[in-house]
Amino acid sequence: MKTELQANLEEEFEFMRRKPVPADGMIVNVYDAFGIEAGNGWYQLLYDMCKEITEVLEAEEKTDHIVVDQIKEKFGSLRFYYHFEGMEPGIQAFDFIGQGSIRIMPGKGDAYQKISKIVQKYEDKSQEVCEICGCEGTVRTDIRWIRALCDTCYSKCPERAKKK
């Protein structure tokens, strides 16, 4: 994702602020080291998801904060891995090509369940939004890298052109 879009999310939502990688270069948190590993087209999805998460945290008066572990594209879908401060990150999902994923909900309680449902909702929505441009799209499985793309971006895939 473009640096400016990443910066917008970090400015707007406290839990999206990345921490510096330690001087020894030891990567402890993938998100802190690499940021959002997905296309610009999913910016609005991420923004809306973060806004809903923030609303739940404020309404529930939660004092613990979300720690973002990784944000990426996998099998044509957005993945937002996180845990709550004071909890171990642990395994968050089992993903299967063409089968979806099994999510493991971090934390117990009403707020945690609400946030888990919000994350799942936006991960599901991402399959219908072009990762490149943000237009309506669909998951394309006939290209080298499974991705959610609109017709226009799909037509520009170099590996697709070779299959004709």
Structure overview:
- A hairpin with a 3-residue loop joins strand 4 and strand 5 (100-103).
- The strands form 3 sheets. The chain has a 3-stranded mixed sheet with strand order 1-2-3.
- The protein has 164 residues and is an alpha+beta fold.
- The longest helix has 17 residues, at 43-59.
- It has helices at residues 3-12, 30-34, 43-59, 110-125, 151-155, 158-163; strands at 36-37, 66-74, 77-84, 93-96, 100-103, 138-140, 147-149.
- 36% of the residues lie in helices and 20% in strands.
- Helix 3 (43-59) runs antiparallel to helix 4 (110-125).
What descriptors fit this protein?
single chain; 164 residues; alpha+beta; 3-stranded mixed β-sheet; two-stranded antiparallel sheet; 6 helices; 7 strands; 20% strand
Order of helices and strands: HHEHEEEEHEEHH
* Form type: globular
Order of strands, widest sheet? 1-2-3
- How many β-strand runs? 7
**Total of helices:** 6
Question: Structural class of the helices, strands and pairings?
Answer: alpha+beta
Low-confidence stretches: none
Largest sheet: 3 strands, mixed
Overall pLDDT, averaged? 87
Percent helix, as a range, is 25-40%
Note the gap between the termini. Answer: 30 Å
Rg over CA atoms: 17 Å
Strand content: 15-25%
